[in-house]
Design goal:
heterodimer; A: alpha/beta; Rossmann fold; nine-stranded mixed beta sheet; 9 helices; about 25% helix; about 25% strand; B: Rossmann fold; two-stranded antiparallel ribbon; 7 helices; binds flavin-adenine dinucleotide; ETF_alpha_N (chain A)
């Protein structure tokens, strides 16, 4: 069966969940071969093998952390040349999309970004995208070269599928283009201890209605009672109440959790673009006319300062 | 020394309008009002700030690839303060994909002459966020993208890229391709004076032959991707809406329990 390359997003060897989802999709198209780069790459093999990777191509080099994007492109290109895959799948992060695009151009292939589903087809993979703030669903194909597709988090289940996970060293030689943009310093984000926003099963978001940074405590308490990630609208982020990394929407993160709870958020098109594919949507808003209510499975018209604490208390009581 | 900045700006259908697909599964640009992609205003703004803060001569050229009406996007950028504009327009461009768009933009940027290209973080219609990386690849210059802070000094561009896992400081020599996010600083509104001045600023029009691009390299036929189906997402079925009369939180908890979330 044809091999399918999966680009591995990992932090010092710990594979992030979207990559495991890609392995599920890759198995629909052929035999998954993973590509893991940078410090700790060798430690990914066990986890990748458990989820279907037959082979794990590994390359560790300082360049991956010292220069932006291009070293990764060159490694992935080397992997494509070594394996001649039927398709290349990359997680749809900001960096993932940049890597995928440059790779596509180098190998003379079309690219489709932000897939939410993927199936095998007679003429290559059929890719589902959710576009125009999720008001349309499209099905597309790459018609030239080896299809390069980036896939959004939460687009497929993580499945156990034991495979060899055999580690092979990937031979990569960097061109002078690889070192064009130097990363002169890096400040890692502090972990909040909460789930990653794009990967979380439940997201609780606050908007302008939350009214201040200190009030976000209410949102965090609700989130913690559910084991959820915390999101924010751009209005809340622009006001400085919550970090931009937590923004949901067109210029923030796209989330597609099982449950999305919007509190004090009106539901502007740019916000909806980031959450409209959530399975169940709940809103708390004091304005019965707020557009967010057009999307909800359950809505409470009321003051969030009354409703949210009561809800948190109820959840805690029920969970005992 | 002088610095030539080319800002790439896209003309897009208004996101608050009713966007849809035409019969050939390309974006319907006839029925919906178009405008300068809001995220490209940030790119224009940063170019203007670099110009204002520089001791040298800086020339800001705005470049769009798009239909006749895309001139509106150029006018807006000119009225914000850009010096001149280039409009690449050709019937054969209809339906071009990201790879093709980057070819046309790269050829136009080379023809215009540049030291620095500044793009938006993503368009508000295609939202791919790949064109700046593709431009860097095609032009063979460093990619310094997704910056929330940018500065240019002595032939070097530096900036801050706020990623998911870390915030990074980047540095590269010019020429380079930069993209800026909506965190890079509020874009200015065109002043009345700016709007009047824009009317006199030069707008050049180029077609594919001016750029030595064959029609079969671009457009729907030349695309390396193909949209086969586009379906409007069914409206979500109307949910239950309750008014809080003291029990709203409780009722919501019951709903969540009934859905097995608690
Ligand atoms: C190019 C572009 C990109 C954008 N990207 C994003 C993006 O990524 N994400 C994003 O969110 N926005 C984005 N926006 C902004 C978007 O258009 C809206 O301005 C924003 O989403 C509004 O945030 P909000 O709903 O929190 O605020 P508002 O629209 O002001 O809504 C606040 C809501 O809170 C309710 N409320 C107030 N007090 C209470 C209370 N005590 N209890 C209950 N409810 C209360 C009000 O009834 C109101 O509905 C973008 C805009 C542009 C132009
Ligand atoms: C809903 C939708 C989905 C699409 N999906 C795909 C896909 O999966 N694969 C594919 O190959 N094509 C796709 N396309 C086509 C693609 O959007 C266009 O080819 C487009 O010109 C480039 O992609 P973008 O708009 O997403 O740009 P982005 O990469 O998001 O744009 C980033 C920046 O590049 C600059 N820029 C982009 N386009 C232009 C332009 N025409 N003129 C000047 N500057 C510009 C701007 O500075 C912009 O801020 C899609 C289009 C739509 C509407």
């Amino acid at each position: 069966m044809a091999e399918v390359l999966v680009y591995v997003d990992h932090v010092d060897g710990a594979v992030r969940k979207p990559t495991l989802e890609l392995l599920t999709l890759a198995r629909r198209l052929g035999t998954p071969v993973a590509v893991a780069l940078g410090a700790g790459a060798g430690n990914t093999a066990a986890q990748l093998g458990e989820h279907g990777a037959e082979k794990v191509l590994v390359h560790e080099a300082a360049e991956y952390a010292e220069y932006l994007v291009v070293p990764k492109v060159e490694a992935l290109q080397a992997a494509v040349e070594a394996v001649s895959p039927a398709a290349v799948l990359v997680p749809s992060s900001a960096e993932g999309k940049e890597i995928a695009a440059r790779l596509a151009l180098r190998i003379g292939s079309g690219i489709i970004t932000d897939a939410v589903d993927l199936e095998a087809g007679d003429e290559g993979p059929v890719v589902t995208q959710s576009v125009f703030a999720a008001s349309y669903t499209t099905k597309s194909r790459v018609t030239k070269g080896t299809p390069v597709v980036t896939v959004k988090p939460n687009s497929a289940p993580v499945e156990a599928a034991p495979a060899a996970g055999a580690v092979e060293q990937l031979a990569v030689s960097f061109s002078d283009k690889a070192t064009g943009t130097k990363i002169t310093s890096r400040t890692p984000r502090e972990s909040t201890g909460r789930p990653e926003l794009t990967e979380a099963a439940i997201v609780v978001s606050g908007g302008r209605g939350v009214g201040g940074a200190e009030n976000f405590r209410l949102i965090e308490e609700l989130a913690d009672s559910l084991g959820a990630a915390v999101g924010a609208s751009r209005a809340a982020v622009d006001a400085g109440w919550y970090p931009h990394t937590n923004q949901v929407g067109q210029t923030g993160k796209t989330v597609s959790p099982q449950l999305y709870i919007a509190t004090g958020i009106s539901g502007a098109i740019q916000h909806r673009a980031g959450m409209q594919t959530s399975k169940t949507i709940v809103a708390i808003n004091k304005d019965p006319e707020a557009p967010i209510f057009d999307l909800v499975d359950y809505g409470v018209v009321g003051d969030l300062f009354e409703v949210v604490p009561q809800l948190t208390e109820q959840i805690k009581a029920r969970k005992g | 020394m002088s610095l030539r900045i080319v800002v790439t700006v896209k003309y897009v259908p208004d996101a608050t309008g009713d966007r849809h697909f035409a019969d050939d599964l390309t974006v319907d640009r006839d029925d919906v009002d178009g405008l300068l992609s809001e995220l490209d205003e940030y790119a224009v703004e940063q170019a203007l700030q670099i110009k204002e803060n520089a001791d040298d001569d800086v020339e800001v050229t705005v470049l769009t690839v798009g239909p006749e009406d895309a001139k509106d996007a150029l006018r807006k950028a000119l009225s914000m303060g850009a010096d001149k504009a280039i409009h690449v327009e050709d019937d054969d461009l209809h339906g071009t994909d990201a790879i093709g768009t980057s070819l046309v933009l790269a050829k136009a940027i080379e023809k215009a002459g540049y030291d620095l290209v500044i793009s938006g973080m993503a368009s508000t219609d295609g939202t791919m966020g790949v064109v700046p990386a593709l431009l860097a690849e095609r032009l063979g210059v460093p990619q310094v993208t997704l910056l929330s802070e940018v500065s240019v000094e002595d032939g070097t561009v530096t900036g801050r890229r706020d990623g998911d896992a870390a915030s990074e400081q980047l540095q590269a020599s010019l020429p380079a391709v930069v993209s800026v996010t909506d965190q890079s600083g509020e874009a200015r509104y065109p002043s009345f004076k700016g709007i009047m001045a824009a009317k006199k600023k030069p707008v050049e029009s180029w077609d594919l032959s001016d750029l030595d691009i064959d029609a079969d390299e671009v457009g729907l036929e030349g695309a390396w991707t193909k949209v086969e189906e586009a379906a409007e997402r069914p409206a979500r079925s109307a949910g239950t809406i309750v008014k809080d009369e003291g029990e709203g939180g409780k009722q919501l908890a019951e709903f969540l329990a009934s859905q097995k979330f608690i």
